[in-house]
């Protein structure tokens, strides 16, 4: 198996090393793992692409490249410049922090997987929820490291053959526990944290100028039962199937009255 991996935390992020281990196990001794990851952290860029300016690409080693661009840029660079053949699978992550619920909409990690789906290649985004039980552990990514390869195998085994324009990709979130604390895998919907929002927080520089930092909301509020964050906080790995199609299909017919 040929696998292309990327992330949004950057080429030197510890989660990318975890993903390389997962991908190497999946690829097998005769497979290939290619890395094209952002040269610098790209958290929160979503599915952004560097449409109005070029990006520098640097080779860091065999099958390993850093691009001054977003995760979606990295996927395109990997597919259309770096690799000599298309990969069988694209993996993005392992993100430091969850991309459950509304976080998914901001996530560069998901942006990389989404681009893979738009390029018609199976793609999975992986993120490690952090909490009191693992954030200060020697290996905060232990749950992802131990269970990552198996959950991807299960996803690939149960992914339907399809010819849809907007292909499936998957959002996987590992719970904020150690490897032994993982209760299992669950298919899930995308949740919504109803009592919290992203906000901004003002700060002043030493020169007196005002800057605004984007601030995330409380991450340990459960979402509706059966949705991603609720399952994660209960110790389960959530697997959420997604598409890039943003149409509210259930409203189209109701909107016919405008015609």
Automatic annotation (TrEMBL):
Q: Which GO terms describe its molecular function?
A: 3'-nucleotidase activity; 5'-nucleotidase activity; exopolyphosphatase activity; metal ion binding; nucleotide binding
UniProt binding sites for a divalent metal cation: 8-9, 43, 95
Per the database record, which ranges form the Survival protein SurE-like phosphatase/nucleotidase domain? 3-195
Q: Quickly give the catalysed reaction.
A: a ribonucleoside 5'-phosphate + H2O = a ribonucleoside + phosphate
One family name in Pfam for this protein: SurE
**What's in the keyword line of the UniProt record?**
Cytoplasm, Hydrolase, Metal-binding, Nucleotide-binding
What is the name attached to this protein's record?
Answer: 5'-nucleotidase SurE
Q: Which organism is it from?
A: Rhodalgimonas zhirmunskyi
Gene giving rise to this polypeptide = surE
């Amino acid at each position: 198996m040929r696998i292309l991996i990327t992330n949004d935390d950057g080429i030197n992020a510890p989660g990318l090393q975890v993903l390389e281990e997962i991908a190497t196990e999946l690829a097998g001794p005769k497979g290939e793992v290619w890395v094209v990851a952002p040269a610098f952290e790209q958290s929160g860029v979503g599915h952004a692409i560097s449409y109005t300016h070029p990006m520098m690409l640097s080779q860091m080693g065999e099958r390993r490249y850093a691009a001054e661009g977003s995760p979606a840029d990295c996927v395109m660079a990997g597919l259309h410049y770096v690799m000599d053949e298309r990969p069988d699978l694209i993996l993005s992550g392992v993100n430091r922090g969850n991309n459950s619920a509304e976080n998914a909409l901001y996530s560069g990690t998901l942006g990389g997987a989404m681009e893979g789906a738009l390029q018609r290649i199976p793609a999975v985004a992986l993120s490690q929820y952090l909490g009191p039980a693992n954030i200060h552990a020697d290996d905060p990514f232990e749950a992802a490291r131990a269970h990552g390869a198996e959950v991807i195998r299960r996803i690939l085994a149960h992914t339907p053959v399809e010819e849809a324009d907007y292909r499936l990709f998957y959002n996987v979130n590992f719970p904020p526990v150690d490897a032994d604390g993982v209760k299992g895998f669950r298919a899930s919907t995308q949740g919504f944290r109803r009592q919290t929002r992203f906000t901004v927080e003002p700060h002043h520089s030493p020169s007196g100028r005002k800057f605004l930092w984007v601030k995330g909301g409380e991450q340990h509020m459960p979402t509706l039962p059966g949705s991603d964050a609720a399952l994660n906080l209960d110790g389960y790995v959530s697997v959420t199937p997604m598409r890039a199609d943003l149409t509210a299909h259930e409203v189209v017919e109701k909107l016919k009255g405008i015609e």
